[in-house]
Amino acid sequence: MAANTRSLSGGSASSIGDKAKFGVVTVSDRASAGIYDDLSGPAILEFFSEAIKSEWHAVYRVIPDEKPLIEDTLKQFCDEEGCCFVVTTGGTGPAPRDVTPEATEAVCERMMPGYGEQMRAISLKHVPTAVLSRQTAGLRGKALILNLPGKPKAIRETIDEVFVSIPACIQLLEGPYIETNDSVVKAFRPAGLIRKGKPDS
């Protein structure tokens, strides 16, 4: 699946949610060099298309495993593009070129270690090498940055489960209200964060 076959926007204006902007960053030397098509970024975009009921738009980039470039891309997506949620895929293992977690930590003001713990616990149900993953998550301004695995199958195994708490996290960061399709992901929110209708209705 080529990257340009997956939509960069979706959702419905009739949703009770707000418009949201997401960032998707595939970190891969070979995909960025055109040696093979990126399948991981499109898997994330496919998840958004299936799971997000409110209107959304995504910015998407494929870059090599270079720590300064990863940092610059994350900063741009959070600070200039105004993304409330930035997802990376790739570069989270123990290989020398795997530097996505270090880049994420360098740009984040606060870390959210619970997400890394949950993602490894999910992946361990499927493969024992999940313990090698160094996935992490953190906050930059009003944005949540999350490291996902590099393989499409692992991406969907992980994000389909971990996303349950992400709309509440984004809302607590004073970001948009993201409504999900319950048949894919039923977002959990404390009672005080639940919206019953459009703010202007």
TrEMBL record:
Q: Where is the MoaB/Mog domain?
A: 23-169
Please name the InterPro entries in this protein's record: MoaB/Mog-like_dom_sf, MoaB/Mog_dom, MPT_Adenylyltrnsfr/MoaC-Rel
GO biological process terms, alphabetically, are: Mo-molybdopterin cofactor biosynthetic process
Write one Gene Ontology MF term: ATP binding
Q: Where does this protein act, in terms of pathway?
A: Cofactor biosynthesis; molybdopterin biosynthesis
Query: Is this entry keyworded ATP-binding?
Result: yes
**Transmembrane feature ranges:** none
| Presence of the UniProt keyword Nucleotide-binding in the record | yes
Q: Which SUPFAM superfamilies match?
A: Molybdenum cofactor biosynthesis proteins (SSF53218)
What single Pfam family name could you report for this chain, choosing any that match?
A: MoCF_biosynth
Its keywords, alphabetically, are: ATP-binding, Molybdenum cofactor biosynthesis, Nucleotide-binding, Transferase
Residues in a coiled coil are none
Query: What name appears for this protein in its UniProt entry?
Result: Molybdopterin biosynthesis protein
